Amino acid sequence: xxxxxxxxxxxxxxxxxxxxxxxxxxxxxxxxxxxxxxxxxxxxxxxxxxxxxxxxxxxxxxxxxxxxxxxxxxxxxxxxxxxxxxxxxxxxxxxxxxxxxxxxxxxxxxxxxxxxxxxxxxxxxxxxxxxxxxxxxxxxxxxxxxxxxxxxxxxxxxxxxxxxxxxxxxxxxxxxxxxxxxxxxxxxxxxxxxxxxxxxxxxxxxxxxxxxxxxxxxxxxxxxxxxxxxxxxxxxxxxxxxxxxxxxxxxxxxxxxxxxxxxxxx
Length: 266
Description:
The chain is built from 13 helices and four strands. With 266 residues, it is α+β, with helices and mostly antiparallel strands.
């Protein structure tokens, strides 16, 4: 998989007082209209950008020929008609996150771990570059649940909690990076403590713990890992729908469509 470059948008993006963006068309390649992009509520809650955001966006809509963004955003690579897992890694997810997940999967494979563990490492942070960082283990598990073994989805979900708690018996320490990220006095919320305690007693505990052991917290910017390196494992353990991710009518199809058209107004 080659690293993708963002295509040059046939328009200029202008911020709306930090409350959204307007794409000013430079040609008629798409619609020739001004398009307003409204950030989702989850992205702005608790920030100054959230207050009065709708008023600022509606003011832009008063300009003739202005519409809300729907469908393909020309600033993003166009997805194929029947998207595969690899297409999302190649055309939607940022290079930093993709490199991290690929490096984690390679490390697990080099250790000779079970293919389910390798796949779980490949997918464990899939929600971070595609949907939400908050509770990303839960979002990621939901995203892939219809397409992977139940153990893999469970492991991805539970790594959300396990990464905060050391298990010296298998060589996992609390990441030093987390001290820098969150402060020395950070204590995860009570539900994370409960999830950790419950997961420790589960028969699949080690599958999830192995994600944390291969979830490298010092990233190698010079590492080059191709998605194709795991094509055999994905082919055996990821049930790619013939209709394409987002169009197979699964309970999570809407989540994949959101990543295809992330800037849709509705």
